[in-house]
């Protein structure tokens, strides 16, 4: 094997080890440290969508919203059909109260991946923040339908938009519109149950 091939192989092994170390830090909740290691990987190997997306989520978890949006935008620039990048960018935009922009990102997520239940849920929360209780309820009902068989996935993703969802639920529960447009008591109970399970 030539020196070049050996060096390239060592570089690939190092990059893989860096990526795994960054993921482990992220899972352990050491988000800033994971950002540092993801950044080191990107310096070593160049931009890859999986690493940019991962670092973007870590930025989001640490409240570095502008950097998160930049990373998600870079992923979208590499792959305009990357549903998760649109979803996370929409989530980041909700953190900045940019609900209309978030809805556009969630629309694109759903266009690419129509069974992405969390995107309906997030879009419903964003609609509630804009005062559109009808679309909020319609989207959250759809999310419930997709999430019934996957409450763990729902609650894992939900942590990203919980503050916005709590605000949305408060707005929707206070509306004096016909009950057919809003969530039923059973739907509200189900969502609250998922939240309690997540918190335990």
How does this structure look, described?
With 200 residues, the chain is mostly helical. It has two domains: 1-80, Alpha Horseshoe (Serine Threonine Protein Phosphatase 5, Tetratricopeptide repeat), CATH 1.25.40; 98-200, Alpha Horseshoe (Serine Threonine Protein Phosphatase 5, Tetratricopeptide repeat), CATH 1.25.40. It is built from eleven helices and no strands. It has helices at residues 3-27, 31-45, 49-61, 65-78, 83-95, 99-112, 117-129, 133-147, 151-158, 162-173, 185-199. α3 (49-61) runs antiparallel to α4 (65-78) and α5 runs antiparallel to α6 (99-112). The chain is elongated and about 50 Å long.
Give the structure's gist in a few sentences.
By secondary structure, the chain is mainly α. It has two domains: 80 residues, Serine Threonine Protein Phosphatase 5, Tetratricopeptide repeat (Alpha Horseshoe), CATH 1.25.40.10; 103 residues, Serine Threonine Protein Phosphatase 5, Tetratricopeptide repeat (Alpha Horseshoe).
What are the salient characteristics of this protein?
2 domains, elongated, 78% helix, Serine Threonine Protein Phosphatase 5, Tetratricopeptide repeat, mainly alpha, 0% strand, 11 helices, disordered N terminus, 200 residues
């Amino acid at each position: 094997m030539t020196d070049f091939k050996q060096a390239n192989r060592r570089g690939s092994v190092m990059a893989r080890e860096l990526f795994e170390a960054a993921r482990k830090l992220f899972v352990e909740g050491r988000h800033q440290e994971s950002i540092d290691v993801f950044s080191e990987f990107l310096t070593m190997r160049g931009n890859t969508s999986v690493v940019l997306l991962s670092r973007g989520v870590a930025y989001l978890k640490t409240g570095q919203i502008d950097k998160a949006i930049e990373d998600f935008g870079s992923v979208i620039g590499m792959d305009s059909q990357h549903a998760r990048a649109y979803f996370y960018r929409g989530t980041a935009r909700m953190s900045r109260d940019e609900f209309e922009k978030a809805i556009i990102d969630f629309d694109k997520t759903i266009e690419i991946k129509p069974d992405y239940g969390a995107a309906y849920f997030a879009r419903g929360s964003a609609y509630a923040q804009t005062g559109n209780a009808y679309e909020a309820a319609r989207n959250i009902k759809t999310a419930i339908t997709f999430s019934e068989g996957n409450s763990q996935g729902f609650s894992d993703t939900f942590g990203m938009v919980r503050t916005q969802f709590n605000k949305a639920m408060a707005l929707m529960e206070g509306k004096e519109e016909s009950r057919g447009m809003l969530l039923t008591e059973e739907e509200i109970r189900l969502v609250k149950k998922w939240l309690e399970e997540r918190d335990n």
